[in-house]
């Protein structure tokens, strides 16, 4: 590749996508990225953000990052996985979009300045398995937002892991590859362990290459996430059930939250 993602030295790496990155887009082809992207753009525009710098935190292979770039936003993508960012850079080469990708742990990410908005979609924040570290991520987001800048994100709830996907096995088989995804949820730690077994077809000989990965995600309650935002100094604006787009309930599996930067003064306020 002519271009590589920039990596910042130091910090502890979170669980990252290795072999699964090669088949991630294949098995996520029915994910409603256009619907999610349209929702994000709608939220940003309703808050007066129609252009400018936007950070995609936990950007993965860059599908949403590309969507927002095509809508006129100046995009930065941050992810801790080299393999996922490699796929994002391949997309960037094909599209020719001007996107900056940074290989960084979101718990310690650094930018060159502030941005108008930060988004984090598709349960990226659930990879932060410690409450204090989650509040620390929110504090970094607050630090790198413009005055009154916006933070739009989602997260999977404790209810979803405990009642919906915990202890279940998901599998899919296609000509290009297959995967087995075994879930194991611990009620005490509220950690969901994903044991992934991936089989990828090798084009040269038609054989399959097997890789295995373990991912850990924590289920948070709505009140915990609001507390983490408050601890980080951010202002909570609203929340909604991500599936119904209605009010959050105790049975909400995924929740959208919009929060706002607090603490910086605009130039005309000084």
List the helices and strands and how they pair.
Layout: E1 6-7, H1 21-27, H2 33-46, E2 52-57, H3 63-70, E3 73-79, H4 82-95, E4 100-103, E5 115-120, H5 131-144, E6 145-156, H6 158-165, E7 169-173, E8 177-186, E9 191-201, E10 208-218, H7 222-231, E11 235-241, E12 254-260
Parallel strand pairs: 1-4, 2-3, 2-5, 3-4, 5-6
Antiparallel strand pairs: 6-12, 7-8, 8-9, 9-10, 11-12
Helix pairs in contact: 2-3, 5-7
The counted number of beta strands is 12
Q: What is the end-to-end distance?
A: 47 Å
**CATH class term of the largest domain:** Alpha Beta
Strand order of the largest sheet: 1-4-3-2-5-6-12-11
Structural domains: how many:
2
Q: What overall geometry do the principal axes of the alpha carbons give? A: globular
Helix share of residues? 25-40%
CATH architecture call of the largest domain: 3-Layer(aba) Sandwich
CATH superfamily of the largest domain: Vaccinia Virus protein VP39
Mean pLDDT: 89
Looking at the structure, the CATH topology of the largest domain is: Rossmann fold
Main β-sheet: number of strands, strand sense, barrel status? 8 strands, mixed
- Helices, by number, come to 7
Class by SSE composition: alpha/beta
The fraction of residues assigned to DSSP E strands is: 25-35%
Low-confidence stretches: 1-15
Q: Report Rg.
A: 18 Å
Which sequence of SSEs, written as H and E, runs from N to C?
A: EHHEHEHEEHEHEEEEHEE
